[in-house]
Design goal:
Layout (H helix, E strand, L loop, with lengths): L1 E9 L3 H19 L2 E6 L7 E9 L5 H12 L5 E10 L7
Antiparallel strand pairs: 1-3, 1-4, 2-3
Helix pairs in contact: 1-2
Length: 95
């Protein structure tokens, strides 16, 4: 399963968010052998950017692990509103 998490961040917090999120993702990748991505929309709206974290092929119960990591990293203090989490499974059509 892959996780896609998006949220809004004040433009002025962009560099701090990027540093903290990438550090957290690096730690999670090493600890759980996953790959991750950090993305943001190019346009600003109302002084904010929308950011997205992507986690590929995560182990069971990874959402709880991620929640603890976000709290420990201080990311929540940089996010305006809530983190929206969506789960996606790979789809392989029959041949």
């Amino acid at each position: 399963m892959d996780l896609y998490i998006y949220y809004r961040v004040l433009t002025g917090n962009m560099l701090e968010l990027q540093q903290q999120a990438l550090a957290m993702q690096t730690q999670l990748a090493q600890q759980y052998q996953i790959t991750s991505e950090l993305k943001r929309r190019p346009e600003e709206q109302d002084g904010m950017h929308t950011w997205m974290e992507v986690y590929h092929d995560v182990p069971p119960h990874f959402e709880a692990i991620l929640s603890d990591s976000v709290a420990a990293s201080g990311l929540n203090s940089l996010i305006d509103g809530v983190r929206h989490i969506e789960q996606f499974l790979d789809f392989s059509p029959c041949a």
